[in-house]
From TrEMBL:
Family matches, as Gene3D superfamilies: Mannose-Binding Protein A, subunit A, Spermadhesin, CUB domain
Pfam families (alphabetical): CUB, Xlink
Entry GO terms, CC: extracellular space
Domain CUB: 137-249
GO biological process: cell adhesion; negative regulation of inflammatory response
Keywords, comma-separated and alphabetical: Cell adhesion, Disulfide bond, Hydrolase, Signal
The name this protein goes by in its record: Tumor necrosis factor-inducible gene 6 protein
The keyword Hydrolase appears for this protein: yes
SMART domains: CUB, LINK
Signal peptide: 1-19
Domain Link: 38-131
Cysteine disulfide links: 60-129, 84-105
């Protein structure tokens, strides 16, 4: 009897782990992106709930994508995309995807919470975009080894860029970032132009460093199989830009010597 209870508990836990927890080594928390889904959440650089419908469309278009449709948002939700922030999506709807029911978000429901078609397009929300492809400025990268560089490198980068690179390698691997060139407008505190590195799949948790100026940053090694890079430039002054390489390596202790990949 006890055995069956244990088995049941195990099955329950496994089911729970599938619904909410690790998938390909990524904990489904605030953002979960997969190449197959290609749906992602963005907010304005001014912060949460600042985008009109027109601005929301421009944010997605800027990254080479479009507003996500309800079906795309739902498909992403089914693989664990959970964000507790309302955003515009296609056909001037506003809503957000909920995987795990919670009192503070989604009224305890699971699914795409849809506020419906908004007649007032001047309302301000976040946005859900769809873009299955990577492009020069950002993207979802799953290769074992890649060069990442500012758009137009080695020419100067443009003003007013926001680029996100979400790196996801295989479960059990880690990511080694190695900077090759670095020249980003310098200011105290790196408030104008900067490159942020996050040891996670979003730009909320796992902050690993902010870089500007022309010192070559040290190598950065992830703790898990995901990383996010965010490059932002303001409305004035640009510089030569940056180029870096990432390489995936096996996280098992017997495979710690991976330096030779970098040459
Ligand atoms: C539309 O929304 C904006 C922003 O919330 C608000 O300022 C404005 O009064 C609304 N317009 C109408 C007609 O309700
Ligand atoms: C790592 O591997 C490289 C190339 O195979 C070798 O030259 C180097 O000595 C190794 N380093 C360590 C610490 O084992």
């Amino acid at each position: 009897m006890r055995f069956f209870a244990l088995l049941w508990t195990l099955c329950f836990l496994l089911k729970e782990a599938r619904a909410w927890g690790y998938k390909n080594g990524i904990f489904h928390n605030s953002i979960w992106l997969e190449q197959a889904a290609g749906v992602y959440h963005r907010e304005s650089r001014k912060g949460r709930y600042q985008l009109t419908y027109k601005e929301a469309r421009a944010v997605c278009k800027y990254e080479g994508g479009k507003l996500a449709t309800y079906e795309q948002l739902e498909a992403a939700r089914e693989i664990g995309f959970h964000v507790c922030a309302a955003g515009w999506f296609a056909k001037a709807h506003v809503g957000y995807p909920i995987v795990k029911p919670g009192a503070n978000c989604g009224f305890g429901k699971v699914g795409v919470v849809d506020y419906g078609h908004r007649r007032n397009k001047s309302e301000r929300w976040d946005v859900y975009c769809y873009n299955p492809d990577s492009k020069e400025c950002g993207g979802v990268l799953t290769d074992q080894l890649r060069i990442i560089q500012s758009a137009g490198f080695p020419e100067e980068y443009q003003d007013e860029q926001i680029c996100y690179w979400h790196i996801r390698v295989r479960l059990g691997q880690r990511i080694h970032l190695h900077f090759l060139e670095f020249d980003v407008e310098e200011d105290v505190g790196c408030l104008a132009d900067y490159l942020d590195v996050y040891d996670s799949y979003d730009d909320v948790s796992g902050f690993a460093g902010r870089f500007c100026g022309d010192y070559l940053p040290d190598d950065i090694i992830s703790t898990g199989n995901v990383m996010t890079l965010k490059f932002l430039s303001d409305a004035s002054v640009t510089a030569g830009g940056f180029q870096l390489q990432y390489v995936a390596f096996d996280a098992s202790p017997s495979a710690q010597n991976h330096t030779y990949y970098l040459r």
